[in-house]
Amino acid sequence: MTLEVLYFAWLRERVGHPRESVATDAATVRDLVAQLAAQSDGHAAALDDLATLRCAVDQKLVDLDTPLAGAREVAFFPPMTGG
Amino acid sequence: MTLEVLYFAWLRERVGHPRESVATDAATVRDLVAQLAAQSDGHAAALDDLATLRCAVDQKLVDLDTPLAGAREVAFFPPMTGG
Amino acid sequence: MSARVQAEPFDLAVELRGFGAGAGAVVTFTGIVRDDSGHMAALDIEHYPGMTERALTDFGAAAAARFDLSDWRIVHRHGRIETGGQIMMVATAARHRRAAFDAADYLMDWLKSRAPFWKREIAQDGSASWVEARSNDEDALGRW
Amino acid sequence: MSARVQAEPFDLAVELRGFGAGAGAVVTFTGIVRDDSGHMAALDIEHYPGMTERALTDFGAAAAARFDLSDWRIVHRHGRIETGGQIMMVATAARHRRAAFDAADYLMDWLKSRAPFWKREIAQDGSASWVEARSNDEDALGRW
């Protein structure tokens, strides 16, 4: 499948761009993270710390073990600081 | 001494007027209440329930055992319902 | 940092003009005349002129000290207020959210049972009855 | 009952026009850019268009159900906001004071750590640094 992958805040800065289309067979978000981290040093730096990594699948917050079946858009970002 | 005594809300209605000057030798608020309650049926009805009676001496909330020495203005009223 | 008692309506926007400059958090509470029975026309609020202003100013100063407020304001109306009309407001400004929220809550608890106001409900047929104090308003002060 | 994300400033008075008709209690919270260091010029707030609106609407609906709100509003800005400028506001309307206070507090806890906004502090010398999430923001959700 092909996913639209988005990055925000300092993850975006480390990756170097805000979005990319990714062809993947990843079963879960965690699998996708591993695939992306191997793509470049910037990706590796962005996705380094799984404890603070936050993720949304199709604009809903999920944890790393969420299956990707049927997903179209996956976003990665640091802990949120709104309000 | 002569005190200015004020009544509010339904105490005022029962007494029949909002204020009066009272000559008294009462040592405490409680003594004053006893003197006032003997003044008329309206006063008695107004000052009947000591548990719900609220009092201010010189515009500060006090309890019934507060001494009246030096006081000028004493107010009686039911529990407050502001806000 | 001010408290006012007035018969006139107030405008929250005007009260907040320039309010809390330099703060990080501003909380406001506005109390509105609510018709629970379906038969109420208005509230009539009696107060103790002189003592009221003093009490509100004391509450504000106590809240400012306790919660390190950079600003506070209390406006409370008296007299007749129709259903839907504003009764009172408090505004608090602090560096942080928690302090602003807690200070507003604290002021409301004090206003409810220590400020010399007495509400009377005026029904649509013109009959009037004094609002009874609720024991949990008194209990609420124990929180602080 | 609405949530908005916008770059433009908002006006609390305009947001509250007609807000909470029929309620007894209205609480507002306004967050303001605060310069703690003495060197900050502005905040720059990034967000996740699409998801942000959805998240805020979900929070509002959850608060309305949980606290029986008669009205609620959330406005959150993104982009550059100078020191002293307003970041966001929530307003809640309920029959009773406790519900209006708690709902505003609840919405703020959710906004702080579950809405996709990221703040960057812009210093007076032009340097920028991302604001770190505080662990107690996360812990705060455990209250509800």
Automatic annotation (TrEMBL), chains A, B:
Origin: domain of life: Bacteria
Family: Belongs to the MoaD family.
The keyword Aminoacyl-tRNA synthetase appears for this protein: no
InterPro entries in alphabetical order: Beta-grasp_dom_sf (IPR012675), MOCS2A (IPR044672), Mopterin_synth/thiamin_S_b (IPR016155), ThiS/MoaD-like (IPR003749)
The name this protein goes by in its record: Molybdopterin synthase sulfur carrier subunit
NCBIfam families associated with the record: moaD
Keywords: Nucleotide-binding
UniProtKB/TrEMBL annotation, chains C, D:
Record's catalysed reaction(s): 2 [molybdopterin-synthase sulfur-carrier protein]-C-terminal-Gly-aminoethanethioate + cyclic pyranopterin phosphate + H2O = molybdopterin + 2 [molybdopterin-synthase sulfur-carrier protein]-C-terminal Gly-Gly + 2 H(+)
Pathway entry: Cofactor biosynthesis; molybdopterin biosynthesis
Domain of life: Bacteria
InterPro entries (alphabetical): MoaE_sf, Mopterin_biosynth_MoaE
EC numbers: 2.8.1.12
CDD domains (alphabetical): MoaE
Keywords associated with the record: Molybdenum cofactor biosynthesis
Family affiliation: Belongs to the MoaE family.
Role according to the record: Converts molybdopterin precursor Z into molybdopterin. This requires the incorporation of two sulfur atoms into precursor Z to generate a dithiolene group. The sulfur is provided by MoaD.
Subunit organization: Heterotetramer of 2 MoaD subunits and 2 MoaE subunits. Also stable as homodimer. The enzyme changes between these two forms during catalysis.
Name this polypeptide is given: Molybdopterin synthase catalytic subunit
Organism: Paracoccus rhizosphaerae
